[in-house]
Amino acid sequence: MLSQVFHDIEKKIIHSLQPDQILTISEIEKKTGLQSDQVRRGIEWLKLKNFAHVKESTDIHYHFGEKGHEAIGNGLPERRLVNEIEKGNTTFDKLKPILGLDFNAAIAYAKKNNWISITKNEKSTELSLNKDHQESLEEKFLLSHKTLEKNKTNEIKVSEDSLFAIVSLKKRPDFIVDSSLIIKKISLTVEGKKINLGDLSHSSGAIDVESKVPEVFVARTHPLKDTIDEIREIFVTLGFSEINGNMTQSSFWNFDALFTPQDHPARELQDTFYLDGISAKKIATPEQIRKVSESHKKNWRYYWDINEARKMVLRTHTTCVTIKHLAENKLDEARIFSLGRVFRNEKVSYKHLVEFHQIEGVVVGKDANLRNLMGIQKEFYKRIGITKIKFWPTFFPYTEPSLQTMVYNERLGKWVELFGMGIFRPEVTKPLGITKPVLAWGGGIERIAMLKYGLDDVREFYNNNLSWLRSARKCQ
Amino acid sequence: MPVVELSYMRLQKLVGKVTKKQISDSLPFLGLDIESENKDLIRIEYSPNRPDYSTDFGIALGLQGLLRIKTGSIKLNIKKSKKYAISVKSEVSKVRPFVTGIVAKNGKIDDKTIKQFMTLQEDLHFGIGRKRKKLSIGIHDLDKITFPLVYKTTNRNFKFIPLNSKKELSISEILKNTDVGKDYSSILENSSQVPLILDAKQNTVSFPPIINAALTSVTTKTKNLFVEVTGINKEDAEDMLSVVATILQSAGFTLESVQISGAKNSSPKLEQKKMSVSPFLINQTLGLNLNNSKIISSLKKSRLDASTKGKNIICTIPAYRFDIFGPMDLVEEVALGYGIQNLEPTLSPSQTLGQKHPSSISLQSLSSIMTGLGYMEALNSSLTSKRILYDNTKRDSSKILSVLDSKSLEHTILRDSLLPGLIDNLAKNIHESYPQKLFEIGTIFNKTSSVTEETHLCAVSSHKDANFSEIKSVLQSVIQSIFGKTCETKTSTHPTFEKGHVANITVNGKIIGIIGEISKPTKDNFKLRESIVSFEVKLPS
């Protein structure tokens, strides 16, 4: 639909044409007082909106030349020839001086009209009149203009005869000049006739609501934050309460409390970010430190160094927050989750970031078992829209048994690893006084967000590229 | 996770009657991820707690169990022999106190077998050997060695022909000039004396934990092997030896014992251990209701032995399964033998009410307030570079907080402000249409005697008419919505902002942040042209 709002020009034209006028452009000019280019523009607009028709009619404009006027006064050369023959002037020699320059034309047209016959003998060329030399269509047409003023543009309603006459006369030099055979006639369409110019919606205060406008962009929460919020919401509806903690943690809570030996390769500089020159003063209660160190010494058989445990790191998982919370609160029955940034000292690539978000959930309860853990996973994945999953065994230093979820990535056409899970080892829980089984699982959120937003490069989430942020769909 | 490369054909030969598909279907249920496949070759990721899976011999043992071709534990048949002995000198106790070993005879060694032994050795060195610091291993051609051996120390001028060399090199030269010497010399740096194994003819067998002698190198012509493990702990050394012994026996060798004595060393026993586990714990942990015979058959499929004793199940665990610490590890072995694919997930009803952390709720509403004010949310890394955080913004870097040895140059220090990251975001979006308005809510880090974390809100607005009043209007409504209070802006200075166009933000007379127009020099450093106004505030914790 094009605009229903009319420009003043349009309104004037409509007014001139209502209710049933058929007018030429010049007539509209006269009636509206508009310039002809204004009229032409207005008509184009109305035509586009289907309010006006433009019909090309075969009405004629014409304008007589000098010869034309002469013929109106004296008759056409062929008629003058006939009159001379009737007077007795029948030879070329006699007629030539009388007709002068018109002689050739007179002979040619009289012959064409089959008014005369020509006979040649030794002495001269003799003309004689045929039986029929009545008034021709051209003559009739000219005679109808007997009373015409000179140099006037004429318009007439066309008859076929006069059309023939004009076409024929046009072939003769200087009889008719400036003729235009086609003329535009403007009228309103059915819709155009219905327009009520008194209607307010067409008043000049209205605007063109359908025209293009400058672009503005939504301000929105970050797409990754939306996924994080969605996951938080799912955990809450599954009965989990959120806990949080610092990103900077002592090695004690990040590693030692989770049964990762101090000489384990994962604790080395190339995998973990250690804070330069900063170590924790108070890391845990003396009892916690004693029992954790005993568990290490007994099971891993090495010299446990408290200074290693004091080293501050950027947490490599949120499990440090969870285990600390469990150790401090000694819960018998609980569902808790934590969500936040974790860090790995890796080379940045399309699939690895040094810093990403992790979700982690735990269930504490005397009857908590591995099948429950798998059940919660299945339910969680279902709620984020992933239904094709399976479980494989795997290894984590602080859980036993340990599983990983494999989810089917339709786009890549293969199974990809998503969350890891397991039951906290007794070597982890016992020293910290946690007596009930603890089911734990977790994984990276960016991976899920990549599936949701169809991204192949995880770095996109942190590029803050406005063209992406402004165009990424809000509800996925 | 470590990776091992295997051949299906070899695996099929080792496992017994089995198809390629049965193998590839079963591997994940042993905890082995297929990383890639190329015709006959497969690359497999295995867990660092299972060094026996670093060879196809070990994986074949696992597959046999899972596919019920052979179940139950692998017993080591070690022929007692008096021919082979190592005596240990007390001087090694300060350097690398323990040695142990075994002899393996009458095996066939082809190129592929040598390759598997090499990956095994590499894995043992890296994993339980802790990069050779804790333990190291040497595999030698038995027939080039004259027993008895002596494990002693020597000084750094001692010379022998090491592996991959044609001439004699001194210990110092080996440590300084060879790749392996350079990689591991730090293990020995605290001592002028270094460990050495010599044979009865005074030929060097090994210079642990660095390199073997060229003399004893193993080739495809070798039939009989001598394996030695040295380290700083006797139990660990015997654990490592048990893995090698198990693999060599599986590879077709017959084992003979080596007698070890002196300086608290003794001959390795490599015995199976017994561990009791209650069926109740198993069923409770797995959420199953298995009878004892099903539990026993599952354990046997995991290549362990088990029998009922009273209410409990007594499990017999071969020495190489030192990853089994206690009953919970046996629960996992039952689960693997039973088959993870046979465990049906169940959803136990929630008996708890979930809730968000109060700070999540307030930060979520702050985000929606900022978007309501027309600001787009950005997310930047906590780890950033000195260039962005301090150099370009001219901020005070005296409390710079670095991480050690970052692999990424763009991520070497922790941010103590959100603003530099957002200005950098504007710099990366100069080709996008203006106005550009961004905000970020995030954690910043302050270096104190330790480190403290705060949550900040920062907003930037950039367009040609951006000015102080505009951003102050935004600030006022934000502060009103966070604190329910009005804020004041007090004339101040800040290196990132334009002089005379910057103020401290105070609420109740307390400074909580900064607001102003970004200075021309800062904009120039980021190659930005349009005006930028900004504020950053600390949020209540």
Describe it for me?
Chain B: Belongs to the phenylalanyl-tRNA synthetase beta subunit family. Type 2 subfamily. The complex is a heterodimer of chains A (476) and B (541). Chain A starts with 7 loop residues before the first helix and ends in a 5-residue tail after the last helix. By secondary structure, chain A is an alpha+beta fold. Chain A is rod-shaped. Chain A has three domains: 71 residues, Winged helix-like DNA-binding domain superfamily/Winged helix DNA-binding domain (Arc Repressor Mutant, subunit A); 107 residues, Orthogonal Bundle (Arc Repressor Mutant, subunit A), CATH 1.10.10; 249 residues, Bira Bifunctional Protein, Domain 2 (BirA Bifunctional Protein, domain 2), CATH 3.30.930. Helices cover 38% and strands 22% of the residues of chain A. Chain B has 541 residues and is of the alpha+beta class. Chain B has four domains: 64 residues, 2-Layer Sandwich (Phenylalanyl-tRNA Synthetase, Chain B, domain 1), CATH 3.30.56; 189 residues, 3-Layer(bba) Sandwich (Phenylalanyl-tRNA Synthetase, Chain B, domain 3), CATH 3.50.40.10; 68 residues, 2-Layer Sandwich (Phenylalanyl-tRNA Synthetase, Chain B, domain 1); 181 residues, Bira Bifunctional Protein, Domain 2 (BirA Bifunctional Protein, domain 2). Chain B contains 15 helices and 29 strands. In chain B, the strands form seven sheets. A seven-stranded mixed sheet of chain B has the order 13-12-11-8-5-16-17, with no helix packed on it. In chain B, helix 1 crosses helix 3, helix 8 crosses helix 10 and helix 9 crosses helix 10. Chain B is elongated and about 95 Å long. The chains are: A alpha+beta (476), B alpha+beta (541). Chains A and B meet through helix 11, strand 8, strand 10, strand 12 and helix 16 of A and helix 8, helix 10, helix 11, strand 21 and strand 24 of B.
